[in-house]
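Figure 6 in text form: structure in, sequence out.
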């Protein structure tokens, strides 16, 4: 799809898939075209060229009505109690009164708003208003979710709560597209990723595969505590040997990282004080592993996979 506003080309032949049962992150700098694309998907804006399809068929007003949409700007009635508002929105989507009330209560409980159900939206904190907005997008049991910055203004515990809700919704088979500037959150939750810059898609695909594709020749090895690593720099084909914990290396380990043969991530965890980084070809890296193992136990070995923040910078540069 393409869309221009006067002389500004907001979207230029943008095309990507949002697959059933998968969380797709939509990331880009301010003004990249994310919100414009989402509004076209929802039918709020029209495209100058191209179309949005669901299961191969063009969208219609009836199809879009089954979507759940959360705009970046909060759109709830500020003087209406939260629970009453959720029930009202569900009823607008033709849900029976009992189902609307049950859905509202379940979401309020899951999102930690049960004790604020009778409060007016304007009386909620900004974070709780964001939770209420997410509940509003979900209360009518939508077929698809389109969320613009759903994690904005949420504290870490609230982020985890919302991630759990979205994962459960995806597990039911629904496609979910959401935009976010919080790349650490995007990395944690997404199955797929679309990176947009200047109105064009620069990269799209499975998040793990995109990170793997942008990994270089850097490896990390966890040497025995008594090993001084001086031998490593002398291995033919090994360059740029440095401690993993040195400032600026950008490696802190990763949850669930594997020993001996596993690839490493770069999005959390703690590196050992004797973990060492080096550049080498895959064959030379295997030689390093064998030599290190001959010198003592090797707790960690693998290719360093860049965090999403580094992939993003490389793609949009």
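Output sequence:
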């Amino acid at each position: 799809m393409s869309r221009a506003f006067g002389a500004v080309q907001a979207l230029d032949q943008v095309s990507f898939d949002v697959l059933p049962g998968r969380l797709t992150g939509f990331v880009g700098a301010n003004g990249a075209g994310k919100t414009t694309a989402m509004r076209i998907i929802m039918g709020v804006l029209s495209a100058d060229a191209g179309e949005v399809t669901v299961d191969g068929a063009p969208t219609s007003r009836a199809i879009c009505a089954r979507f759940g949409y959360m705009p970046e700007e909060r759109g709830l009635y500020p003087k209406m109690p939260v629970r009453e508002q959720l029930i009202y929105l569900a009823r607008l989507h033709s849900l029976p009164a009992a189902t609307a009330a049950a859905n509202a209560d379940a979401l309020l409980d899951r999102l930690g708003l049960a004790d604020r159900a009778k409060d007016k939206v304007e009386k909620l904190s900004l974070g709780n208003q964001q939770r209420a907005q997410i509940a509003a997008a979900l209360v009518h049991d939508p077929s698809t979710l389109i969320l613009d910055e759903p994690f904005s203004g949420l504290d870490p515990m609230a982020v985890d709560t919302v991630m759990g809700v979205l994962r459960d919704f995806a597990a039911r088979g629904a496609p979910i597209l959401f935009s976010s500037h919080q790349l650490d959150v995007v990395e944690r939750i997404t199955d797929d990723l679309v990176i947009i810059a200047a109105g064009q898609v620069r990269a799209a695909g499975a998040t793990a595969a995109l990170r793997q594709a942008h990994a270089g020749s850097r490896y990390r090895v966890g040497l025995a505590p008594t090993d001084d690593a001086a031998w490593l720099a002398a291995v033919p084909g090994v360059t740029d040997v440095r401690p993993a914990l040195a400032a600026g290396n950008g490696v802190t380990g990763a949850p669930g990282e594997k020993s001996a043969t596993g690839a490493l991530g770069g999005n959390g965890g703690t590196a050992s004080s004797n973990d060492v980084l080096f550049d080498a070809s895959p064959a030379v890296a295997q030689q390093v592993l064998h030599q290190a193992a001959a010198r003592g136990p090797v707790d960690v070995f693998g290719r360093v996979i860049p965090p999403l923040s580094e992939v993003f910078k490389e793609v949009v540069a």
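Caption detail: Residues 156-171 form the longest helix (16 residues).
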